[in-house]
Amino acid sequence: MRPSTLRALKRAAELTRQNRLTEAVLIAEPVILAADSYEGDEILRWLAEHVTDFTGQDLKETP
């Protein structure tokens, strides 16, 4: 994954934790839409592995 893509996803996660979802989407959506199929697969894997970055919750803690 390109470093710029990773930065955008991390920033989107930070904004989401701050309840700034609209801004998060504005940052992440263009990067996701511009990704080729290989990078798109990497983005999907990263999102699945970092879901707690967006929620701020550890999935193991939830009932």
Helix and strand arrangement:
Blueprint: H1 3-17, H2 21-34, H3 37-49, H4 51-55
Q: What features would you describe in this structure?
A:
The chain has about 60 residues and is mainly α. It has one domain (about 5-55). The protein has helices at about 5-15, 20-35, 35-50, 50-55. The N and C termini lie far apart (about 35 Å).
Entry summary:
The chain has 63 residues and is an all-alpha fold. Helix content is 75%, strand content 0%.
User: What proportion of the residues form beta strands (DSSP E)?
Assistant: under 5%
Number of domains: 1
Q: Helicity level, as a percent range?
A: over 70%
N-C termini distance: 33 Å
For the biggest sheet, the summary is: none
- The structure class reads mainly alpha
Sketch the topology as an H/E string, one letter per element: HHHH
Number of helices: 4
Shape: globular
Mean pLDDT: 91
Number of strands: 0
What oligomeric state do these chains adopt? single chain
Q: How big is the Rg?
A: 12 Å
Q: What are the low-pLDDT stretches, counting only 5+ consecutive residues below 50? A: none
What structural keywords apply?
globular, 63 residues, mainly alpha, 4 helices
